[in-house]
Structure of TNF receptor-associated factor family protein DDB_G0279745:
Amino acid sequence: MVRNSEITLEQIFKEGRINLENDDYNCVICSFPLFDGLQCKRGHGACKSCWEKIIGENGKKECHSCRISIKSLDDLSKNLYLEKEIFKQKVACLNNGREKFGNTLVIKSDGGCKRQDIPIEKLLHHIKNECGYLLIDCKYSRDCKYYKQISLEQHQNECQFMSIHCPALCGKKDSRMNINKHLETPNSCKPLISINNSNNSNGNGNGIDDESIIKLSNSIVEIQKSYQNQIKKIKENSESEIAALKDSLYYSKSRIKNLEDEVEELKDRFSTLESMINKLDDSATSRSGTILINGWKMKLKSLDVGHSIVEEQFYIGTNRFYIRIYPFGDSYDNQGYVTVKLGRIDGEEYHLDIGLKVSIKGFDNKKKVLLSYYPGDIAHNIDQLVETWETSKEFKMILHFKVDLKPKIK
C-alpha cells in the first residue's frame, strides 16, 4: 500500500508501482512506463532518467537506437500523443492490498481498495481523496505504527503517544500511555475537587472523604474505558460491514458492466440475424440468374420441334421452377420461334412477375423469340429479332431472367 500522502506520480512511476502491458508505453532501456518520456529528432524515445544517464559525464551522448548526437536534454522533445495515451491507461489502485514478491502475487489478509479501472491521470486524486487506504504516519510519534486514512478516528482514540487530559479531572495532561500509568499508580491522581475538613476531620463538609472521591474518579475512568471499548467494537464491526458492502458494490458494478457488454453483443447478433432473415425473405420471394449457351450448332443436329436444348431448375422459397429453351419451338403451333418456357413444378399458387432478356449473337436470318409461362399465366412474343442458326456460323445465347412471387388473391 502507499504510505505518505505527499507521494507524487513521478515517485510511483520510478518505484515501478505501475505496470503497463503494452511495451510501446514502456522505456526501451529500463522497462518502466514512459511517465516523463523524451525522444530524439528521429522519434526514438526513452524516459528522462535514462536520457540523463546517456548524456551524463560517463554517457555516450548519442541516441541508443539511431546513434544521433545528444548533447543535452534540449536536443530532445516530448511525444505529447504518447504521453496522453499513457495517462489514459487504466490501472488498479495501488492500495489494493496486494504485494508482489518475485513473480508471485500475494493477496494480503487486511484487504484494500477494490478499484481496478482508474485512469493514471486520476490515480493520485483517488489515492489521496477517495481511497481511504492510504497509509498515514502518526504525527504524535515516529515510534507509533502508521494507520490507514479511513482509520483516523480509531487511531486517535487508541494512539498511546497522543496527548490527553486525565479523565479523573486532576488536571494532568500527558501521552495516553503515561496517563494510563498515572491512573494505575496509587495516590498519584489527585482530583481537582475542593475538600472541606471543618466539620469532619476525615472528609469534606458533606461527609465525603478523599478515599470515596478517588474511588468515584476511578469508577469514572473504568466507565470511560468500557465506553471506549464498546465504541471500538462498534467501529470494527461497522468497518467490516462497510468493507463487505464495498466489495458487494464493486462486484455488482462489475456484473452490470459484463451484462451491458452481453447486451451489446446480443444487439450485434440480432442485427446480423435480422440481416440474414431479410436476405432469406428476399430469396423466398425472388430469384434471378443467367443462362449462357455456347456452340448451338453441334447441339441442334439431333433436335426437332418440341425438344429443349437446356433445362435449369431452381427454387424460390419452397416453390420449384424450371426454365427450358426450345430452339425449334415447344410445339408445332410455335414452330419458327425460339421458345423460352418458365414452368412451376410444385409449390403454392402465386402470381408471377417475370422479366426475361435475351441476347443471341451469330445469326444471318431473322426470327422471333417466344417467351411463355406454363401452365399459361403468361405467354407473349417479344419484339426482339434474332438470327436463324441454319448457317455454318457458331453463335451463343445469353438469357437473363428474374422471377418475383406475389401471393395469389383468392
